[in-house]
Amino acid sequence: MSEKVTEAVILAAGWGRRMGKRGPKPLLRVAGREILYRTFSSLRAEGIERFVLVVHPDHRADFEGFLKAHGLDARFVNNPEPERGNGYSLHLARDEVSGPFVLVMGDHIYGERFVERALRGEGLAVDPAPRYIDRDEATKVRLRDGRVTEIGKAIPNPDAYDTGFFVLEPSIFEVTEALAREKWGFELAEVVERAGLPAYPVPEEFWLDVDTPQDLRRARALLVAQAVKGAGDGIVSRLVNRRISTRISRLLVDRLTPWQATWTTAAVGLLAAGLNFVSPVAGAVLYQVSSILDGVDGEIARAALRTSALGGWVDSVLDRYVDVTYLLTLAVTSRLPEGLWPVVALALLGSVLVSYSTERYKAAFGRDIYREIPLMRFLPGKRDERIFLTMILVLMGLVPELFWTLAVITHLRVLVTLLLGARGETA
Q1: Over the stretch 249-258, which tens digit does the pLDDT of each residue have?
Q2: N or C: which end of the chain has fewer CB within 10 A?
Q3: Which CATH architecture has domain 7-211?
Q4: Alpha-helical segments (H) within 16-109
């Protein structure tokens, strides 16, 4: 397909009865965002500019209100008889399409990488071995010479699975026109088989459809799991913190904004610092809790498509406040000898410089040092590792040893960061 695809048709006329009385399925919130918002967002990111929404007239006001609230725009096509099938819904959009177009189902969720790859093909995007759906419930596809010969839920040993994502030419409406003359209603499966659509694989990417409340819960869990940052995580985050924080994020993603999560985490960290005056052991444990919670705001932001440079910046600044306050109150309440205070100062400085050195690299060169230099992931001394180490040594009563350890590992990490970064930029 030589002509660039800039239009999309979204089929959203169904009643969604399997979901219960929840309104139109595309407007359901999954992990903090409506399914339809996710569809618009991923398609717009790939250059789709014009949208056609096929909806039931009873739900049109709901869709119009949603689009207005989010600053989105679409042309509407009414389908007062969704029982005539989703193939008929596509047929009704025939006068609104002027060139090659994307066709998607309103109750499907697609990852950004899926959309990017799917737009390179023509016909029906299929997945030979889907990882995120119930294959027994999915629509199966039989192929021959790269074209669909059979499509349906009851096909044994299928060649692939229907993702509900199509890249089509307007000529597809010749097929829908013929079917509309022959019968009262028809499904997309009939259109696909009649047209003998080409199929192209988009394997190992994230996509799923939401038909039932169980699908909704599963989608939420998967979107949060997909939202883990990963690249900059230390070993404690990878092995401990993320396993807990993602479970918390699952529970809160539809109830809490990223900003609320950020300020809550900072408050817990400052409370841990205050607890040092009462019980350093309790303070150390709560400090580790704040480290676990520190992943929640980012997970919620990424899962709910609410990430922002401002949010990341504020979160980083608050982390520094928490770390310095906690370590200062720990040093004061532990009544350390005067000779150890230079070590405390070095530990505080190093704790700040670990983050500062990597962020300054990004500001100077416009690239993430963890992606540029994979070895950085394995250097000890990241915040999650320091906080976990702090908890362990405080529980053991080894506060002076803690400050010596922090002073050494943080400055060694900064030094190695400078060496690796300089080598990478001068190579």
Answers
A1: 999 999 999 9
A2: C
A3: Alpha-Beta Complex (3.90)
A4: 35-44, 60-69, 86-92
